[in-house]
Write a structure and sequence with these properties.
16-stranded mixed beta sheet, five-stranded antiparallel beta sheet, 21 helices, 41 strands
C-alpha cells in the first residue's frame, strides 16, 4: 500500500532503473509451462479418424446412465465467495463454509430471489440465472462452530453441547460476514457444444457445476467427499483391513460427455478411514499390541496428530494437536477456582481434576499421556479414555501388503453384484429431488447404457522348437514347451539370508525344470548361508557381510546370484541387496522367499531369470516374421513412461520417473529402463532432456536412443511410439507440449536433421467405467474393445480389457491416442496395443495394460527401494507437495547401474 501523507517509506525509495530495450524478462517455470501450452502452434489431442471393425461383435452394458438437459437456453452464474469473521479476519479453516452458506440461504431467501445454490465448499458458488445484484453482502450467526470437519464437507453436528467455559475454541467468533460477487456467466448450451466435440472453457466449467451439484447433494446427506466420490457414515459400508484402518465403501458419481450424449458415470468406490471409536482401541490395533502400557507413544503422537475426537461427557469435538509430556497423574495445569468474590489459581494434575473435581471415574488413564487439543502455548488436556475418534476421517498413509490384500479380498464384487449395488445407489441418491438439477432441466435414466464391444483374436505366440500357438482366454503355460530363446547359466551361486527351506531340493528342482524349458543350468559354485551372528544386524550390515563372504568364497564374480529371503513381502534386505548387486557389482540377481516350492513356482522364477539374463520366454509370431503393421516396416522404438509418487500422506518423498524402451528392433518384447528421481508429487517427467553443455545431454531419452541404435544394427528409429501412464485428462496438453518437446529436443541434439514420427498414447486405469455381459455372471472376455457410444465425442480413445478378469469385475484400461504422425488405422493401432499385453515376460497371461508401462512401474518401484525414503510427515492425514517457500526441494539422485546390467531387464 502506498502511504497517503507523503512522509511514508515509499517516498524514500529511488525510482527503479530503466529496463534496456533488448532485455527479455525471465519467466517462472510454471508460467513457462503454461505459455508452452498456450502457444499458437500448441499441439492438442487428435480427433478420432475412424472406428475399429475387427473382432467378434458382442453386446455389453456399461455403468453410464443417459442424461437429458432440457434447459439449454439458460445460464449458470458463477460468484466468488469471501468469508470473514466479525473482526475482518478471513475464515481459513475448511468445513465451516458450507454451514455459513446454508445459513445465508435460509436467512436471506427473499433477498436472493429464492435462488438455489451450488457451492463447492470453498470460494465458488453457482446459480441458475442471476442473483438480484452483482455484489451482495450478508451477516449470519452460527450457534456453535467447532473445529474443522472432513475436507470441509461434513458439517459438524449442531446439537453438540460444548464445554464453553473451560476451553478456547478454534472459532470463538460466531458471526460471519459473507461477500458474494459476480465472477462469470456460463451458457448451458456449451454442454451441447461439448457433445458435438466442440469443447471450450465454458463447457468444462458447465460440467464442473453439474459435478459440484452432485458433491453438494452428497454433503447434505453427511457424506465424506473425496473429489467425486461420496462415503456415507454407515458401519455396513466399513471393512476392517487391520492396523486400525477400515475400508469404507461409497460411490463415485460424475457427468461425462460422450459420443452418445451426456451421461452420469456411477461406480463403487473405496477409501481408507481411521477406525472410529475409543482412541486407545485404535492405537492398540494400529501398533498391534495388547494393552495401552505397551504402546509406543512417540509413534502414537505422529499417528494421532490432526485427527478429530469427541470428548465425553460433553461430546465436544476437537482436533488433536499432540500429547502431554507426562502421564495423566503427573501432568500439571493451572486451574482457576472461584474464591469468594474473586478467583485463585491452583496447580492440579489432569487426573486429579477429572476424578476429584469433575467426578469422572478413570479406569486406566492415570499412567498414560493425555491428549492435547490446545495451542502450543496454551495446551488443553483430556485423559485418553475420554476421547473417541470421530467417524469418516481419511487414512492417507500407504497400506502395508497385508492390508492391501485384505482390502482387495473384502471389497471385490462379481459383475452381477456390482450392477445390483449400482442400480441401488442410483435410486438411493434420488437425484430427481435435487432442486439445482431440476432447475437445469436434468433428468437421469435408470438403465445401464448399451454399447457394442468387439472381441479381438489373441495374437499367436512363438515358443522354442519352432512351435507356435494361440493362447485361449488370455492364458497359456509352458508345460511340454521350451522357451523361445533360453539362456545358459554357468557361473552362479545361492545366497541364503536365514530363510528356512530345503536348498538342495530347490537347486535340483531349478536345474531340472530349467532343463525341460531349454535353460542349461550348471551346478552352483556354492551355497552361502548367512552367519547367524548377523541375523539381527541392520539390513545394510547384513548385505555387506554377505558380500564379504561371497568374495572370499567364490573364484571370481558370478553372472547370477539366487538370493533366499526370510520374508515373502517387504523384506528390509531387498532394497540394499538389489542396490549392492546392480549398482556396485553389476550382478543379475533373483530374490525368492520360498514357502511352497512346486514346478509351477519354479517355472515362474525361471521365466524371470531367463528374461533378466537376456533370454526371451515367448514372442509374437508377427514379431518374428516380422509383419507388425507399420512397426516392422521402419525402425520403431516403443517407450513406456510412468512416474510413481509416495502415498498421499507422504509429502516429502521424491517421485520416481521411469522410462523403458524397446531394443533390438524389430523386436517389441525386449526392453531396458532408465530411472531418475524428481521433486515430490511432480507428474511431468523433468529429465527427458537435460542439456549440460553444447555437447552433453544427460537426459533419459538420449540414453535410450543410443541403446536402441547400438542394439538395432546402428539404425536410428524413424518412429517413436510413446505409452504414458498416470496422467489425467487435464494434463494431456502438458504431455503433448512439454514432455514431447523434451523428447524432440533430445532427438535434435543427437542429429539436427533427424525428424522421427511420433505416436503418443496415454493409458488410464484409474477411472470408473466398467463393462458387463447382459444376463451373464461372467466378466467380459479377454480382448474386448469398446470405441463407441461412451467414448469421447471428438478425441481418439478406446477401452480395452486385454486380460481375463478372474476375480471381482474386470477393470478396462482407457487408452487415449493423443497424437499419431505415423498414420495407423484404428484396427492396426488397437491390434498393436492388444498385442503389447501379450509380451510381458514375467507371466503366462495377457496383462491389463501394455507391457512397457508395466515394466516402467516395476523399474520405478525396484529402484525406489534402493533408497529407503523415510516418511517424515507427522500425520496420517497430512497434505503437501514438493515445494518450499524457497522453491523446489533438491532431491537425492539414484545410484547409476553398472554397464553389465544397465541394458538388462533387471526389473523383470
Amino acid at each position: 500500500m502506498g502511504s497517503q501523507d507523503g512522509n511514508g517509506a515509499e517516498e524514500a525509495l529511488p525510482p527503479p532503473p530503466p529496463v534496456p530495450p533488448n532485455v527479455v524478462p525471465v519467466k517462472a517455470e510454471a508460467e513457462q509451462a503454461l505459455e508452452l501450452v498456450k502457444k499458437k502452434n500448441a499441439r492438442v489431442p487428435m480427433a478420432r479418424r475412424n472406428l475399429g471393425t475387427k473382432g467378434q461383435r458382442t453386446p455389453l452394458l456399461t455403468n453410464h446412465f443417459k442424461v437429458k438437459v432440457s434447459n439449454t437456453e439458460g445460464h449458470f452464474f458463477h460468484y466468488s465467495v469471501a468469508l470473514s469473521y466479525e473482526d475482518g479476519r478471513p475464515v481459513d479453516g475448511k468445513g465451516v463454509g458450507r454451514r455459513v452458506i446454508d445459513r445465508v440461504h435460509e436467512t436471506y431467501n427473499s433477498e436472493l430471489s429464492g435462488k438455489d445454490f451450488a457451492y463447492d465448499g470453498e470460494k465458488s458458488l453457482f446459480t441458475v440465472g442471476a442473483l438480484p445484484q452483482n455484489k451482495l453482502e450478508f451477516t449470519v450467526v452460527l450457534e456453535d462452530v467447532t473445529s474443522d470437519r472432513n475436507n470441509g464437507n461434513c458439517s459438524p453436528d449442531p446439537n453438540n453441547e460444548s464445554d464453553r467455559k473451560r476451553v478456547r475454541r478454534p472459532y470463538r467468533s460466531k458471526t460471519f460476514k459473507v461477500e458474494i460477487s459476480f465472477a462469470a456467466k456460463i451458457p448451458m448450451k456449451s454442454i451441447a457444444s461439448a457433445l458435438r466435440g466442440q469443447e471450450s472453457e465454458n463447457s468444462q466449467e458447465a460440467l464442473r457445476v453439474l459435478d459440484i451439484i452432485l458433491r453438494q447433494h452428497a454433503s447434505k446427506q453427511g457424506c465424506l467427499l473425496v473429489r467425486q466420490s461420496f462415503f456415507h457414515n454407515d458401519p455396513k459400508n466399513f471393512v476392517d483391513v487391520g492396523g486400525g484402518v477400515l475400508g469404507c465403501r461409497g460411490f463415485h458419481s460424475s457427468f461425462r460427455t460422450a459420443q452418445d450424449g451426456l451421461s452420469l458415470n456411477i461406480d463403487v468406490s473405496t477409501t481408507m478411514i481411521i477406525q472410529p471409536g475409543p482412541v486407545v482401541d485404535f492405537l492398540l490395533a494400529n501398533q498391534g499390541v495388547r494393552d495401552p502400557y505397551s504402546l509406543d507413544w512417540n509413534k502414537a503422537k505422529r499417528t494421532l496428530k490432526n485427527l478429530r475426537i469427541q470428548v465425553s461427557p460433553s461430546n465436544s469435538e476437537y482436533k488433536i494437536t499432540g500429547l502431554s509430556e507426562k502421564p495423566c497423574e503427573d501432568q500439571m495445569f493451572t486451574l482457576k477456582q472461584r474464591n469468594g468474590d474473586g478467583f485463585e489459581e491452583v496447580e492440579v494434575t489432569v487426573y486429579d481434576y477429572f476424578v476429584n473435581h469433575r467426578k469422572i471415574a478413570l479406569r486406566y488413564s492415570d499412567k498414560l499421556p493425555c491428549i492435547n487439543v490446545g495451542k502450543p502455548k496454551r495446551p488443553t488436556y483430556f485423559p485418553v479414555e475420554l476421547c473417541t475418534l470421530v467417524s469418516l476421517q481419511r487414512y492417507t498413509k500407504a497400506l502395508s501388503t497385508l492390508q492391501r490384500s485384505s482390502l482387495v479380498e473384502k471389497s471385490r464384487q462379481k459383475p452381477q453384484e456390482r450392477m445390483t449395488v449400482l442400480s441401488g445407489a442410483l435410486k438411493k441418491n434420488n437425484y430427481d429431488a435435487e432442486p439445482m438439477l431440476r432447475s437445469c432441466g436434468v433428468s437421469i435414466s435408470s438403465n445401464f447404457t448399451q454399447v457394442e464391444g468387439r472381441v479381438l483374436q489373441p495374437p499367436r505366440l512363438k515358443v522354442g522348437n519352432g512351435e507356435d500357438f494361440a493362447p485361449a482366454r488370455g492364458r497359456w503355460n509352458f508345460n511340454n514347451k521350451k522357451l523361445v530363446q533360453p539362456i545358459q547359466i554357468d557361473k552362479w551361486a545361492v545366497v541364503n539370508f536365514s530363510a528356512r527351506c530345503d536348498i538342495n531340493g530347490l537347486v535340483e528342482n531349478l536345474m531340472r525344470c530349467g532343463n525341460q524349458k531349454g535353460i542349461l543350468i550348471k551346478d552352483p559354485f556354492d551355497v552361502i548361508v548367512e552367519n547367524p551372528q548377523f541375523r539381527r544386524a541392520p539390513p545394510l550390515v547384513r548385505v555387506e557381510k554377505m558380500f564379504e563372504e561371497i568374495q572370499s568364497r567364490l573364484p571370481g564374480q558370478p553372472d547370477f546370484l539366487l538370493c533366499l529371503l526370510p520374508e515373502r513381502k517387504n523384506s528390509d534386505l531387498y532394497g540394499p541387496w538389489k542396490r549392492k548387486n546392480l549398482s556396485e557389482h553389476g550382478i543379475v540377481t533373483q530374490c525368492i522367499a520360498p514357502t511352497r516350492v512346486n514346478d509351477q513356482y519354479v517355472t515362474n522364477v525361471l521365466l524371470k531369470i531367463n528374461a533378466k539374463l537376456g533370454g526371451l520366454n515367448s514372442m509374437l509370431v508377427v514379431e518374428h516374421s516380422p509383419s507388425i503393421p507399420m512397426v516392422s516396416k521402419k525402425p520403431t522404438i516403443i517407450l513406456g513412461m510412468d512416474v510413481s509418487h509416495g502415498s498421499p500422506g507422504q509429502s516429502d518423498i521424491p517421485s520416481i520417473a521411469a522410462v523403458v524402451s524397446s531394443r533390438q528392433w524389430p523386436s517389441i518384447s525386449r526392453y531396458r529402463a532408465s530411472v531418475r528421481t524428481q521433486s515430490p508429487k511432480v507428474e511431468m517427467i523433468d529429465s527427458l532432456y537435460k542439456r549440460v553443455s553444447d555437447t552433453e545431454d544427460e537426459g533419459i531419452v538420449r540414453e535410450l536412443l543410443l541403446d536402441f541404435y547400438t542394439s538395432s544394427k546402428k539404425m536410428k528409429p524413424d518412429q517413436i511410439i510413446i505409452f504414458r501412464d498416470g496422467v489425467s485428462e487435464s494434463q494431456f496438453n502438458q504431455v503433448l507440449n512439454i514432455e514431447l518437446d523434451q523428447i524432440i529436443e533430445a532427438c535434435k541434439f543427437l542429429d539436427a536433421n533427424w525428424e522421427p514420427k511420433f505416436v503418443v498414447i496415454v493409458a488410464q486405469k484409474n477411472h470408473h467405467t466398467k463393462f458387463f455381459l447382459p444376463n451373464s455372471p461372467d466378466n467380459v472376455q479377454p480382448g474386448t474393445i469398446i470405441d463407441n457410444r461412451i467414448c469421447h465425442p471428438r478425441n481418439n480413445d478406446f477401452y480395452l480389457c486385454a486380460h481375463a478378469g478372474m476375480i471381482g469385475t474386470t477393470r478396462p484400461t482407457h487408452y487415449h491416442v493423443l497424437l499419431d504422425e505415423v498414420g495407423f488405422s484404428a484396427d492396426d493401432l488397437q491390434e498393436l496395443v492388444h498385442s503389447l499385453s501379450y509380451v510381458y515376460q514375467r507371466s503366462t497371461t495377457a496383462i491389463s495394460v501394455v507391457a512397457p508401462i508395466c515394466y516402467a512401474h516395476l523399474a520405478a518401484s525396484q529402484m525406489g527401494q534402493f533408497m529407503k525414503f523415510e516418511d517424515t510427515s507427522d500425520t496420517s492425514s497430512s497434505r503437501g507437495g514438493g515445494m518450499t517457500s524457497a522453491g523446489p526441494v533438491p532431491v537425492p539422485q539414484l545410484p547409476k547401474l553398472k554397464d553389465q546390467v544397465s541394458s538388462s531387464m533387471f526389473f523383470c
